UniProtKB/TrEMBL annotation:
<keyword id="KW-0100">Branched-chain amino acid biosynthesis</keyword>
<dbReference type="GO" id="GO:0009082">
    <property type="term" value="P:branched-chain amino acid biosynthetic process"/>
</dbReference>
<dbReference type="Pfam" id="PF24877">
    <property type="entry name" value="ILV_EDD_C"/>
</dbReference>
<dbReference type="GO" id="GO:0051537">
    <property type="term" value="F:2 iron, 2 sulfur cluster binding"/>
</dbReference>
<dbReference type="InterPro" id="IPR037237">
    <property type="entry name" value="IlvD/EDD_N"/>
</dbReference>
<keyword id="KW-0456">Lyase</keyword>
<dbReference type="InterPro" id="IPR052352">
    <property type="entry name" value="Sugar_Degrad_Dehydratases"/>
</dbReference>
<dbReference type="Pfam" id="PF00920">
    <property type="entry name" value="ILVD_EDD_N"/>
</dbReference>
<keyword id="KW-0408">Iron</keyword>
<comment type="similarity">
    <text>Belongs to the IlvD/Edd family.</text>
</comment>
<dbReference type="GO" id="GO:0046872">
    <property type="term" value="F:metal ion binding"/>
</dbReference>
<keyword id="KW-0001">2Fe-2S</keyword>
<dbReference type="InterPro" id="IPR020558">
    <property type="entry name" value="DiOHA_6PGluconate_deHydtase_CS"/>
</dbReference>
<dbReference type="InterPro" id="IPR042096">
    <property type="entry name" value="Dihydro-acid_dehy_C"/>
</dbReference>
<dbReference type="InterPro" id="IPR000581">
    <property type="entry name" value="ILV_EDD_N"/>
</dbReference>
<feature type="domain" description="Dihydroxy-acid/6-phosphogluconate dehydratase N-terminal">
    <location>
        <begin position="36"/>
        <end position="346"/>
    </location>
</feature>
<keyword id="KW-0479">Metal-binding</keyword>
Length: 568
C-alpha cells in the first residue's frame, strides 16, 4: 500500500529535497524518510483550555508508542476550545476547529491521525474534521480530574457550582463558603469529573469504537492514562498498515451503541448535537428521533453526578465504560468494529463491574431515563430533555410562561423579590440558539429565581433554544427547533401564555389559538444579527439547526484525503 506521505518524502528532485531538508532542520535523521507511516498528532493543548493543559505531556506518550511501532510521529496544534473561558461560547467555534483539523490533515504529509482532546467541544470538533478526511484515526482523551473535595465531601465540577449558587441564593451557604469551595473543586489536570459533556464525549468516542477500551474514564493524572496513550501510538501505526479508516470503523450500528451507552450513563444532552454532526460528516444516516427510539427501554446504570451521586474517578475504579458496555451487550450490536481491529463484544468480554457505581442490567437506577425527544406546536422540529436529571413531578406539567428575550434580561431579573414567578411558572428563554446568540450557549439551565430558592423550590420547568452544560440538572427543555431567531414558534411565546410539557407523551405544546399565533407570526421581526464579520458572520449564514447537528451546511459530508497540488 502506497502511503500519502510518500508524495512528500519519497519524491526525487527539487520537491523531495525541499520536503526532507526542512524536516531535517528539526534534527530528524534520514531513517524517518524510509517509507514508514507518518502519524499526525492533532493536539488541542492550550493554557487557555485548563481541561487540556496536560496534553503536551500526553503527546509524548503517544510519540513513544509511534516510534516503538516503526512510525514517524509529527505533532501539530489545532484550535483549542476551552468551555470555561471562551466567549460567547465554545460551541460557536466547534465547526471552526473541525475545519482546522480537516485542512491540517489533508494538506500535510500524514498517513493517519491521533486526536488529543479533552474539553467539551475539542472531542466532537476534532472527530468531525477527521471524519471528513477519513484517514485511520484514533482518539486519545485527556481524562477527568480527580474528585473535587470540600469539607470532607466529594464535589463535582459544574454540578457543585449550580448547587452552591442555588444554596447561596437560598441562604443555605455564605459567600465566604462559596469562595472557599473554588480551590477544592478543580484540584488536578483533566476535564470535568462529573458526567458532563467532556466525560460524555470521551465515552462516546470509546463507544463508537474510536478510542482504546477503558480509555475514557482513567483520571488525567493516573499513570495508566499515559501507558494507554503509548499503546495508542503503537496501535495507530498498525491501523495505518491495515488501512483501518474511520469510515470502516464507524457505522450506524456504532452510533446506535453510543446512543444507548449515553442513556445508560445519564450522559449529556450535548451528545445529541455532536453525534448528529459526526454522523453527517461520515454519511451515516442518523436523525434526532433515533435518540428516542434507541433509548426507550435502555436502563440507567451509572450513578454519577449530575444525575446521580458519584464522580468519574469512582466510575473508573468501578470498571469504567467497558463494564457498562458488557452489562448492555444484550441491547447492543456486539459485532460493531473498533480501532482495536476486534469487535465491541470482544473488547469488553473480560470487563468487570466492581461496585454499585455501575448497576447490573437487572437492577438499574431507572429505565428509559435517557434523552427524550419532544415535539409539538412549540417545537415542530424537536426539542430534548434529559430525563435522568429532571424532577419526576415536573415531567407532566402545565404552567404560565414567563418570557425573557435574552439571558442578560433574565439575569437582571432573577434576584428581584417582586418577580412575578411561582413554582408552577414555566421560564422561557428566547434568542439563545445557534444563530440567535450566536453559537447556542449553555444557558438553558437558568438559575432558580432567588424568590423561589428562598421558599425552598429546587426546580421549575425551563424551556429554551439554548443548550445546557452536561454537568447541569433540572427539568430543562433544550434545543427547541426551529430556534426563535429564525422565526420558530418559540419566538411567539408571550408572558402569560400556557405551556404544556408531557415528557411521557413526548409533547411540548403552547396553548394559544392558531389565529393568535398567526397574528404574532405576521408581526414578528428577526432580531438584529449580533455579528456581521469574520467567522461569526460565516457561521450565522451557514449554521444548521440543532436537529441537524449545528454543522455548517457546506461542511456536511467528506472531502477525502487526496493529496493536493505541489506548493513549489
Amino acid at each position: 500500500m502506497k502511503l500519502r506521505s510518500h508524495e512528500w518524502f519519497g519524491e526525487s528532485g527539487r520537491n523531495g529535497f525541499i520536503h526532507r531538508s526542512w524536516m531535517k532542520a528539526q534534527g530528524f535523521s534520514e531513517e524517518v524518510f524510509d517509507g514508514r507511516p507518518v502519524i499526525g498528532i492533532c493536539n488541542t493543548w492550550s493554557e487557555l483550555t485548563p481541561c487540556n493543559a496536560h496534553l503536551r505531556r500526553l503527546a509524548e506518550s503517544v510519540k513513544r508508542g509511534v516510534w516503538q511501532a516503526g512510525g514517524f510521529p509529527v505533532e501539530f496544534p489545532v484550535m483549542s476550545l476551552g468551555e470555561t473561558m471562551l466567549r460567547p461560547t465554545a460551541m460557536l467555534f466547534r465547526n471552526l476547529l473541525s475545519m482546522d483539523v480537516e485542512e491540517s490533515l489533508r494538506g500535510n504529509p500524514v498517513d493517519a491521525a491521533v486526536l488529543l482532546t479533552g474539553c467539551d467541544k475539542t472531542t466532537p470538533g476534532s472527530l468531525m474534521g477527521a471524519a471528513s478526511v477519513d484517514l485511520p484515526t484514533l482518539v486519545v482523551t485527556g481524562g477527568p480530574m480527580l474528585n473535587g473535595k470540600f469539607r470532607g465531601c466529594d464535589i463535582g465540577s459544574g454540578t457543585a457550582v449550580w448547587q452552591f449558587t442555588q444554596d447561596v441564593n437560598a441562604g443555605r451557604m455564605s459567600e465566604a463558603e462559596f469562595a472557599a469551595a473554588e480551590s477544592g473543586m478543580s484540584r488536578s489536570n483533566g476535564h470535568c469529573m462529573t458526567m458532563g459533556t467532556a466525560s460524555t464525549m470521551a465515552c462516546m468516542a470509546e463507544a463508537l469504537g474510536l478510542q482504546l477500551p477503558g480509555s475514557a474514564a482513567i483520571p488525567a493524572v493516573d499513570s495508566r492514562r499515559y501507558g494507554l496513550a503509548q499503546r495508542a501510538g503503537q496501535r495507530i501505526v498498525e491501523m495505518t498498515h491495515e488501512d483501518l479508516r474511520m469510515s470502516r470503523v464507524v457505522s450506524r450500528a456504532s452510533f446506535a451503541n453510543a446512543i444507548r451507552a449515553n442513556a445508560a450513563l445519564g450522559g449529556s444532552t450535548n451528545a445529541v448535537i455532536h453525534l448528529l454532526a459526526i454522523a453527517a460528516r461520515l454519511g451515516v444516516p442518523l436523525a434526532l428521533d433515533d435518540f428516542d427510539a434507541y433509548t426507550a427501554d435502555v436502563p440507567w446504570l451509572v450513578d454519577l453526578q449530575p444525575s446521580g451521586h458519584y464522580l468519574m474517578e469512582d466510575f473508573y475504579y468501578a470498571g469504567g465504560l467497558p463494564a457498562v458496555l458488557r452489562e448492555l451487550l444484550p441491547l447492543l450490536d456486539g459485532d460493531a468494529l473498533t480501532v482495536t481491529g476486534a469487535t465491541l463484544e470482544a473488547n469488553v468480554a473480560d470487563a468487570e463491574r466492581s461496585s454499585d457505581v455501575i448497576r447490573p442490567l437487572g437492577e438499574p437506577l431507572g429505565v428509559g431515563a435517557g434523552t427524550a425527544v419532544l415535539r409539538g406546536n412549540l417545537a415542530p422540529d424537536g426539542a430534548v430533555i434529559k430525563q435522568s436529571a429532571a424532577s419526576p413531578h415536573l415531567l407532566r406539567h402545565r404552567g404560565r410562561a414567563l418570557v425573557f428575550d435574552s439571558i442578560e434580561a433574565y439575569d437582571a431579573a432573577v434576584d428581584d423579590p417582586a418577580l412575578d414567578v411561582d413554582a408552577d411558572t414555566v421560564l422561557v428563554l428566547q434568542n439563545a440558539g445557534p444563530r440567535g446568540y450566536p453559537g447556542m450557549p449553555e444557558v438553558g439551565n437558568m438559575t432558580i429565581p432567588r424568590k423561589l430558592a428562598e421558599q425552598g423550590v429546587e426546580d421549575v420547568v425551563r424551556v429554551s433554544d439554548a443548550r445546557m452544560s452536561g454537568t447541569a440538572y433540572g427539568t430543562v427543555v433544550l434545543h427547541v427547533c426551529p430556534e426563535s431567531a429564525v422565526g420558530g414558534p418559540l419566538a411567539l411565546v408571550r408572558t402569560g401564555d400556557t405551556v404544556e410539557l408531557d415528557v411521557p407523551a413526548r409533547r411540548l405544546h403552547l396553548d394559544v389559538p392558531e389565529d393568535e399565533l398567526a397574528r404574532r407570526r405576521a408581526e414578528w421581526q428577526p432580531p438584529e444579527r449580533p455579528h456581521d464579520r469574520g467567522w461569526a458572520r460565516l457561521y450565522g449564514d451557514h449554521v444548521l439547526q440543532a436537529d441537524q447537528g449545528c454543522d455548517l451546511d457546506f461542511l456536511v459530508g467528506q472531502s477525502g484525503s487526496a493529496v493536493g497540488r505541489q506548493s513549489h
